[in-house]
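Notebook p. 47: complex prediction with adenosine-5'-diphosphate.
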Amino acid sequence: MVVAEGVHKRYGSVDVLRGVDLTVRRGEVCCLLGPSGSGKSTFLRCVNRLEKADGGTISVDGEPVGFRRHQGRRHELREKAVAAARRDIGMVFQRFNLFPHLTAAENVMEAPVRVKGVAKDEARQRAAKLLDRVGLAAKADSRPAQLSGGQQQRVAIARALAMDPKLMLFDEPTSALDPELVGEVLDVMRGLAEDGMTMIVVTHEIGFAREVADTTVFLDGGVVVESGPPAEVLTAPRQERTRAFLAKVL
Ligand code: ADP
Ligand code: MG
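Predicted complex, structure tokens below:
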């Protein structure tokens, strides 16, 4: 579903990604770990083309991100085509970024109605189902300010699912939450994984990674230091840098 090869990204004179290779198979969960500033968010932003990589290639479901090949040459896609491709990728951020003036249901309906032209009644029914899936059927008419952080993040997940993504990207989805609210969000994510969603999850929740991830990737200084099944990377890391990081977060 995702194949990244030699991805480079620099900001000014700073090399943030220095040749990242990463593969996520359909239906698998990849947990991306690494210290602050290692390039995790930048990598996710390159995958859904919020950022343009300076080198290397990324493809999602067989389609190169941001360009197409024609007669062996590389042609950059226009902004409209990039935006269309981005619709297939759901993203959930640390900060939930819900529309404060809209109810939970309206937040979930917004993109299907505005972007895809789905009829409002149909979008509303679908939103009800998605809110039920994240355990918030009773909160459809609540505004974000009336919801806890964990509930808001679950609405944000339902909102991303409303566009029927084939890939979900999570960037530290529980880092801004009070500790007692982390579990309910991780439970929803675990359910998505069980339903076969392909996901890349940036997280410091090692327990979640150990339990849910198919592959764990440890990024440091813009390169993949170590990757493999969680039983290897988290339980018996081979690299000193991975060991040092795990000792800090565990
Ligand atoms: P992580 O998510 O692993 O904490 P980031 O991908 O956010 O790391 O950032 C990696 C590095 O890139 C950091 O040094 C950060 O300061 C730098 N960086 C990220 N975004 C920008 C930007 N838009 N402009 C300049 N530097 C950036
Ligand atoms: Mg980050």
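Notes: Residues 11, 16, 34, 36-42 surround adenosine-5'-diphosphate (ligand 1) (CB under 6 Å). The chain is about 35% helix and 25% strand.
Next step: compare against the earlier run before touching the bench.
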